[in-house]
Amino acid sequence: MKLDSYWLDTAPEFRDGAQGPVEGHSDVVVIGGGFTGLSAALELATRRVSVTLLEAGRIAGQASGRNGGQCNTGVAQDFAALAASVGLEQARGFYRAYESAVQTVEAIVTQHRIDCDFVRCGKLKLAAKPKHFDKLARTYEVLHREVDQDIELIEPARTRSEVGSDAFHGGLLQRNGAQMHMGKFGVGLAQSAARHGARIFENAAVTRTKRMDGGRYEITSTRGVIRADKVLVATGPSRQGPLQWFQQRMAPVGSFIVVTEPLSQTRLDALFPHRRNYVTSLNIGNYFRVTPDNRLLWGGRARFAMSDPRSDAKSGQVLQANLARYFPELHGTRIDYCWGGLVDMTVDRLPRAGQHDGLYYSMGYSGHGVQMSTHMGRVMADVMEGRAGANPWRALPWPPVPAHAARRWMLPLVGAYYRIQDILH
Ligand SMILES: Cc1cc2nc3c(=O)[nH]c(=O)nc-3n(C[C@H](O)[C@H](O)[C@H](O)COP(=O)(O)OP(=O)(O)OC[C@H]3O[C@@H](n4cnc5c(N)ncnc54)[C@H](O)[C@@H]3O)c2cc1C
Q1: Alpha-carbon dihedral sign for residues 104, 110, 115, 120
Q2: Most buried one in 28, 53, 346, 406, CB count within 10 A?
Q3: Longest Cα–Cα distance in the chain
Q4: Is 343 a pocket residue for ligand 1 (Cβ < 6 Å)?
């Protein structure tokens, strides 16, 4: 078993990285080479803006290349609760922003001919307990009435037509969800951006940002110093570098994934006939899908812990055991990959994007970031050109996370709380 991301291990190499030191001047410097930063660099480069991207490690090496591979429509939280908190009109706007985000991913894939196995497959949320179906049915009613007619309620009796397991009790299908190979997409974005003139530096961690007289910036990285008129911070939940203001506003949460050996077509047809994106209805639930080469990717919050190789391996064992509980036929199936990553959680699970102290930023996608990070890269190109109204998240305040919620030692307690909620409800 490799303790590595399947997406990164099976992605082509990015060969068009900039050589030599980081130096000179760019109209825009983007900090971070995940989907937010890469998509912004691509969009700016196609608009003939000079852009330099500085990535601390490898392109898409963090959340963007370590996720569950789902590119879904729909907000991260219950729509009715969201509408109660921000108002129906704004909740509709947020929901539709996710639809636009999936469209943006598809448009980029098509326009730049990125070979990344993009396919519209739908997302199915499965009721993990009989009573969870009632909640899904209520969600269906609200969504169907207020914002999305392209959804379907799968009655418990029809579950087996969707998934080969007796552990589920109906589900809610959002038809417009998509999936793709995350590593191929990340490298494809980077190559397209480089082809249009973006300079992309890997292994160039930013250690200092300084505002100069006249509003320009001086950005210091481990590969040199560059000046820029504008800076986009696209560092996800990263704890490294000089960007504490952003770090204080998110709680990075570990999430873990295992990928099986390739499974036979017959077995996959029996278990996952429509090859959708699947999530379960528990607080500490699972997400899963089939990879382009017929493996099952099975993820979840397994343990409330941060991600490092030891922690990932422990979480992998938990995931393997609960995979066999939901799909007994897969007991004993070999696990070929196991890894973890940090999810960029905000307190209300809504993204944040805008400008702080002159620096532009977009992050905090709270586990629903594949589509939104890509979309926001494009949106931030508009915002940097003076169209702030393009940003759907512009009106949201962003106070720091209360200190206790960010502390690592609290994580197991938070985990225990949600596990108890899952047992009781
Ligand atoms: C295990 C897991 C599963 C997930 N599953 C899904 C899913 O199925 N569907 C979904 O929609 N979302 C999912 N997500 C969330 C999604 O992957 C992220 O929201 C999205 O990829 C964020 O992209 P980003 O570009 O903003 O951040 P990242 O991909 O984290 O990129 C930020 C980059 O900035 C770089 N960086 C940080 N600090 C510096 C610095 N000082 N200098 C230079 N570079 C720096 C980092 O190295 C990193 O490459 C998942 C996340 C995880 C961790």
Answers
A1: positive
A2: 53
A3: 67
A4: yes
User: How far is it, in rounded angstroms, from Cα 156 to Cα 171?
Assistant: 7
Residue nearest ligand 1's atom 9 by CA: 70
Kindly give the distance from the C-alpha atom of residue 66 to the centroid of ligand 1, in angstroms, as a whole number: 8
Q: Compute the distance from residue 381 Cα to the ligand 1 centre, in Å.
A: 19
* Superfamily of 6-410 according to CATH: FAD/NAD(P)-binding domain (3.50.50.60)
Grouping H, G, I as helix, E, B as strand and the rest as coil, residue 259 is: strand
Distance 32 CA to ligand 1 centre (A): 9
Mutate to test the pocket of ligand 1, among 238, 278, 315, 379 (most ligand atoms within 8 A of CB): 238
Q: Can you give the residue ranges of every domain in the chain? A: 6-410
Residue among 303, 390, 400, 307 at smallest CA distance from 101: 390
Contact status, residue 222 vs residue 211, Cβ threshold 8 Å: no
- How far apart CA 327 and CA 164 sit, in angstroms, is 8
Print pLDDT tens along the chain (425 aa): 999 999 999 999 999 999 999 999 999 999 999 999 999 999 999 999 999 999 999 999 999 999 999 999 999 888 999 999 999 999 999 999 999 999 999 999 999 999 999 999 999 999 999 999 999 999 999 999 999 999 999 999 999 999 999 999 999 999 999 999 999 999 999 999 999 999 999 999 999 999 998 889 999 999 999 999 999 999 998 777 778 899 889 988 889 999 999 999 999 999 999 999 999 999 779 999 999 999 999 999 867 677 787 888 888 899 999 999 999 999 999 999 999 998 988 999 999 999 999 999 999 999 999 999 999 999 999 999 999 999 999 999 999 987 655 555 566 656 665 666 666 66
Element housing 167 (H / E): none
Dihedral sign, Cα of residue 41, residue 231, residue 212, residue 216? positive
Closest Cα to residue 252, out of 342, 367, 362, 312? 342
CA distance 421 to 283: 8
Q: How far is the CA of 341 from the centre of ligand 1 (A)?
A: 8
* 3-class secondary structure, 222: coil
